[in-house]
Protein: HIT family protein
Organism: Candidatus Xianfuyuplasma coldseepsis
Amino acid sequence: MDCIFCKIREGEIPSYKVYEDDHVLAFLDITQGTKGHTLVIPKKHVPNVYEVDEDTITHVFTAVPKIARALKKAFNPIGLNIVNNNDRPLQSVFHFHVHLIPRYEDDGMVLSTKNNFGKIEPETFIEITQKIKDSL
């Protein structure tokens, strides 16, 4: 397999592991967007959230708060972003992973969403709601 995270899991590529159990591995993101920026991955190869099973996602999100609390204790950030990218445009490694990004005063990180508050008609919300419900 040509997955960098699977190679990290197998020890073929070195990493800075911060947590490991039977189902999950967490290691420092090599980019260190901020001090302590950590990736949490399932050991099972799953490309994205669309293909992850409930058991696997449960293991990942059971580990996330544990690691987040460790980051808070270790670095006392003012906050923490939890980010997961899927497909285009931002997923760069196609092995499901969650970024835990501690936030600090003036850390230079920019994570934002477009604010369309007041620009969308109620009918549009109803249509969007129904399309999602019909797809469940």
About this structure: The beta strands are 17-20, 24-28, 38-42, 79-83, 98-103. Residues 78 and 108 are 14 Å apart (CA to CA). The first helix runs from residue 4 to 9. The helical segments are 4-9, 54-75, 122-135.
